[in-house]
Amino acid sequence: MINAIRVGALARTLFAALLALASTGALAQQDLEGSRDHPLFNRLSGFFIEDYKSSDFDSYPFRVKVTPDDYKEQAVEGKLTHITYRPKEGTRKPSSLAIVRNYQNAVAQAGGKLLWEQPGTGDRLVTLLLAKGGREYWVEVAGGDGGDWYTLAIVEKGGMAQEISASDIFDALAKQGRIALYINFDTGKATIKAESQPIVKQVVDMMKAHPELKVAVEGHTDSAGSPASNKALSDQRAKAVMAAIKAQGIAPARLSAAGFGQEKPVADNATEDGRAKNRRVELVRK
User: Fold this and answer.
1) Is the pTM of this model over 0.85?
2) In the chain, how many domains are there?
């Protein structure tokens, strides 16, 4: 009887341990707490999120084709999301090629394009570019050989919001005679993005506080594109900023606008950081 009791107790203990292990395994195959899919994409069926990172502003090195077999890394800045997926137990694992093709086809159907595809077999990697809703999205899809994992790195490209006060603007104009404002526009357009409207408001507040002040609004671009198109775009953007300032009660006689395109860089156009600095609007005291 004693032995039977001991065997029964041991069996119950082993069963409880196995149940705990099964529960732990099930929990391990659930999405990481606080994680979620990116709004642009659905995940592949049967996969869960193992790792998740999100930043409102960061940089990520994307591979861009130079030759069919070679690439360069291009740092892209903006809102970064990085997700690692793993297959749940019992999921039929897709090939690494099937993983990247799923996302590549989805981007192509939405009007995007392929910028780089890693040649060969085994692990796969593609860089994709998609414009949607006035935003530019850079996407890297990497798939492990055998379908044991895949990752998405997605950057919603954009400039870091510039925090500046009316007094900062006036002080710069008084001391240096000019100030660079990093106002964000829709890609290839002269439409001021909502996140940059507070900068325009600070310019208006500054000019209302100093009614004697007159300024020229100057538009500048990086070297991407033709000089003629860049000059035209910079002129349109300068005029858009001037119009936005006028619309908030500043007399037209106190403002002028002109575009200089890529003629007056303040940084090296060979780097992404330099190009970002060159894409600017300047206020110049008259």
Assistant:
1) no
2) 2
